[in-house]
Amino acid sequence: MPDHKSCPLCKSDNIVEVFKVTDFLVSRQEFPLMKCSDCFFIFTNDYPQENEAANYYLSEDYISHSDTRKGIINKIYHLVRGYMLKRKFSMLRRVSPAGKQSVLDIGCGTGYFPLYLNQKGWLCKGLEISDEARNFAYKKHGLTIDKPEKIEDFELGSFDIVTMWHTLEHFYDPDNYMKNVHRILRKNGLLVIALPNNSSYDAGYYSKYWAAWDVPRHLWHFDPHTIERYAGGRGFVPVKTFRLPFDAFYVSVLSEKHKGSGTAVIKGFFRGFISWFTALTRRSRTSSLVYIFRKNQ
Ligand SMILES: [Zn+2]
């Protein structure tokens, strides 16, 4: 198992265990969360080797790769998806020049976002690690999606925008992706990264039950400071952030489930509302944030 002895972000040896978090969705195993005392980066430790990682994605609850409609949480997720596609597209339009843009969506799951952008007349390609999700995208949407290693084949300056919607935190080799993203973006191209925020209201409230720790699938746990430092060290400058308002509700309901609450949906919605309300005036307390970076040079 990968066992980090130093901070992956600033290389300091000054790391301490915050607490252990249970994998509530699949294995019920515990994994330690470590925090760097120098840069405050939080990361999962002792997580599975990459060749065993797929075993930890085998859950019907792990909906980002599936299209099932079982259970109330999934129903809500699917209802919200249509709205979110529209919202994500509007974010991209607000930060990019007028006209059609070429986009690469890394970790596109079942392909809804590339499909949506293509329907809007933009040109969007997707990369996805799950065979099942890629096959689904082809059968349902006629969309050909490549495996992640295809990123190495794109030429210098191929894209105006690269998006990673809740995927960077899953990557075993995030630095290699960042290096490639920098290479394949055109001059002044944009990198869009959506991430759970461990400085959010709901992260503080739910502590080790916070659903967005999602160990051992999430390896890296960012907040606004650590992601800016991380991206800054890899040739990107921050441009803007956007809130993802629904994540507070979704994450809170799931966190209540992890706690074993009998009325998880009601309690989760209530807590999600408090989190959403808190974040209206304090952006750094938002459950999930979308960070827009510009390629530096
Ligand atoms: Zn550090």
How is this structure best described in words?
- The chain is α/β, with parallel strands linked by helices and 297 residues long.
- The protein has a single domain (15-295), classed as Rossmann fold (3-Layer(aba) Sandwich).
- It has helices at residues 71-95, 112-119, 131-141, 174-184, 201-206, 224-232, 247-259, 264-281, and strands at 15-22, 30-36, 42-44, 102-106, 123-127, 159-165, 185-196, 220-221, 236-243, 288-295.
- It has a six-stranded mixed β-sheet, with helices on both faces.
- The longest helix has 25 residues, at 71-95.
- It is globular and about 45 Å long.
- Zinc ion binds at residues 7, 9-10, 12, 36, 38-39, 41.
- Zinc ion (ZN) binds at residues 7, 9-10, 12, 36, 38-39, 41.
Give me the count of strands: 10
Give the termini distance in whole angstroms.
38 Å
Could you tell me which ligands this complex binds, including any ions or cofactors? zinc ion
Indicate the low-confidence ranges by residue numbers.
Answer: none
CATH A-level architecture:
3-Layer(aba) Sandwich
Structural key phrases:
alpha/beta, 6-stranded mixed beta sheet, 4-stranded antiparallel beta sheet, 8 helices, 34% helix, binds zinc ion
